[in-house]
Amino acid sequence: MVTARLRVTRVTPMGDPENPYATEVEMTPDYAGGANKEWSEATPQGVCRLTITNKAALKQLPQGAHLHVTFEELDEVA
């Protein structure tokens, strides 16, 4: 299991007339105040982009939000 702190750095509506909530959310490592220091000796780098089409989920990922994310390998893939 790996944990990281990410920050929502960009929220871009996709302009899809069939799904007005389709939005790309971009997150990058949050290293302010020493965050992520435990897993990266240097400034952590990377980008996580998700296309969100669910209005309720999108409300939880506003630009500037600080997130704690856990990556865990699955034993089985359904």
Task: Tell me roughly what share of residues is in helical segments.
Answer: under 10%
Helix/strand order, N-terminal first: EEEHE
Question: Please, what is the average pLDDT?
Answer: 87
- What profile does the largest beta sheet have? 4 strands, antiparallel
Task: Provide structural commentary.
- This protein has a 4-stranded antiparallel β-sheet with strand order 3-2-1-4.
- The chain has one domain.
- The two termini are 19 Å apart.
- It is globular, with a radius of gyration of 14 Å.
- It is mostly beta strands and 78 residues long.
- The protein has 1 helix and 4 strands; from the N terminus they run βββαβ.
Highlighted features:
single chain; 78 residues; mainly beta; 4-stranded antiparallel sheet; globular
Précis, in short:
With 78 residues, this protein is mostly beta strands.
